[in-house]
Amino acid sequence: MSKTLPFAITLDPGTSLTNETGSWRTNRPVYLDRLPPCNNACPAGENIQQWLFHAEEGNYFTAWQKLMEDNPMPGVMGRVCYHPCESACNRAELDEAVGIHAVERFLGRKAWEEKWVPEYDAEPSGKSVLVVGAGPSGLSAAYHLTRLGHSVTIREAGPMAGGMMRFGIPKYRLPRDVLDYEIQRIVDMGIDLQLDYKVDDIEMAFSAEGFDAVFVAVGAHLAKRTEIPAHAAGKILDAVSMLRDMEEGSEAPQLGRRVIVYGGGNTAMDVARTAKRLGVDEAMIVYRRSRKEMPAHDFEATEAEEEGVMIHWLRTIKQIDETTFTVEKMVINEEGRPEPTGEFETIEADTLILALGQDVDTEFLDNVPDVKVASDGVVEVDSRMMTGREGVFAGGDMVPAERTVTVAIGHGKKAARNIDAWLRGEQFAETEKHELAGPDVLNAWYYDDAPQTKQSQLELVRRQSGFEEVIKGLTEDNAFYEARRCLSCGNCFECDNCYGICPDNAISKLGPGKRFAFKYDYCKGCGMCATECPCGAIKMVPEEI
Amino acid sequence: MTEQPVTQKVKFYQTGTHTVGNRLMTEDERSVQASMDRSNAITSGHRACQGCGEALGARYALDAAMRASEGKIVAVNATGCLEVFTTPYPETSWQIPWLHSLFGNAPAVATGVAAAYRVKGKDARVVAQGGDGGTTDIGFGCLSGMWERNDDVLYICYDNEAYMNTGVQRSSATPPTAHTATTPAVGDAPGNIFGTGKFLPLIAMAHNIPYVATASVADLHDLETKVIKAMGISGSRYIHIMVPCPLGWGSASDATIKVARLAAESGLFPLFEAEAGEITSSNKIRRQVPVTEYLKLQKRFAHLFKKGPGGGEDTERIERIQRMADTNIRRFSLIADDAAAETSQ
Predict the structure, then answer these.
(1) ipTM of this complex prediction, to 2 decimal places
(2) Nearest by CB to A448, which of B16, B50, B51?
């Protein structure tokens, strides 16, 4: 500064940086990561927000790799998952949930087109694991165990891998080329898949073959039956066998002109829609409760109805006399249970298909010591997915849980991580969950208005006559747009808002990917950054005084 | 039931330009404030209150002016909060050449600085700035003269609707019913009275100067665009920026942006620009709100909503304020496709 100061001036101007206004503060802003509701809801434990983050930038490869860390089958998942993530999505409060499944499906297709393979880095552990059953849970476990460096053998009793993805979900919801491709990609990682190989003796696998651990995931294939008095019964089938015959049999099952499907679950819907596609004149569903109580998802019932399936709500079948079915009307009582009314009517049909749920065939576990089977026939496992027998883990439909492909895939991952820890003599420590980012943490003002992109559907006539896939995929443009609808709830997405709106210039921008830092020497604690953060990644905490 | 595929070939950036930055946009579409090398015209350590709108508005405006002029500006400041909190002798927060003289003469000093640079053949732009008191009341004579002569100065008024620096006294920019130290919330019609005050942007337009605009700390991109545009024009330019004052308005320190946003979204503070005396554009309201949403956040209007013996909500005067907003919406066409707005200009 100048050597000679003006008249009456005794000090040079200095910077206000010497005045550390941070001492004014009673509340301190802190950056935090909150748990997005989509991630929280995902049964497969996907880090949805993270892969959407990469997809938003058009980095589909990175997005796909991130997705593959948790789920080996995005193409399958984007089609058959009932997407609890979308039911939880905070965007529904603004307009509509982000179409996560549609972006996932797009990534699955992109990976197929580009022939991407999962990238992972694991030292061979020298351990080998036997997986029993090649359904979603077994495949997922095998995939994750391979990523962790273990050598894996899968034994599958049936002639094809896929389990309920193949034998329970019709083609019009999951085209087989998608399924085959994604299974093959898992197998190609170096997994020994042995088909038509029924495992009867688990103990032998340890003692004679030297496996270090076993994961059983044989699913639930035994159809539940019900007693219906029949004078002269017509044709009665069960849903699981029928859907399996559709895959394995050379000829489609003969169903006659009119079919009744008994049950109100997703399988009932699938079977009725399959029957329609096989050319029956009338496909009917008889269900003892009402639409509100049905276990099937609403969209499945809607799609079935669109295709001409007639659903008789609040009816039970009381008697069968050749092609005449006597049904009793029901009402829902105050406890929400169906109650008979004593009123009857008749329906004519040629075939009855029972879709009343499935049980687990646990016979092969009878001689495995300490494996506990609960009264409802499912196998008990601890928090590590381990059965009572040390080293034998179980998952999928055969353990107590919701029976969906996504849950099964999640079981496979969880079991793999615990098997890995167990093989290393460690305890798998789940990372602590962050606090949930509910809609209240968002500042919705900042997000652009944007309704969900709708996936187009196959024309109705073709839906009633063939097994072509009903729901179409998104184009790249649409998937890109849809990914960008993500609000990034609870996690910084570097919008620069805090950095820009701080009146005290008390936030440093650290550069792309590095987020921001508070300059606590100057932050006065006004709280504007926290209030104006769009996604709730800043919170104010009281200063210790 | 055949659904047509939706073709959505839109540019969509998650938060668009509502946030300060946006990693999905190209660098040149982002704001000056999003930049890591913004000039920070006012640096940390200043003594403005927590959540000060004026500190924010002034940094927004001058950082944009710095970018527009490639760092060649001189700022002249009227007396007021901005001068006091940034420059208590011997410290200053300004990181640009900055000059303060008196409360009422900032426009005249700025005129002189501009003239001096012209005489010396130096290339620098001059920005003058003041609060609403220094601009609409005390410095108004000098300012009107500066406009009338079309001197090459950008004058920015940071309007927080009263003399906050000296203890919240009424200015000619204080809105009706607002409580200040000189318009206390007592009597039959508490707070400032209706039918007084002035809206300076319209007076500026009456001088036919090249550029007049209003802006708000709630809309950074708009504010920066207007400052940068003004910096590219020679002659007198005027920008009137709304900057909420948590202290004088009795709003929460974290609500500054929100209050400013609601002022614009209710229609009470119209955002527009005018060239050579004619309005050329106005910002459309995105999510319209009744004025009560704006008023309720501020203690200076609390008496309007007090329930007590002999009174309830002061619906009559709240409705009058709503009519002010409605008039603005019509007059400045603040709602897109509003047919009424077209006819009643």
Answers:
(1) 0.92
(2) B16
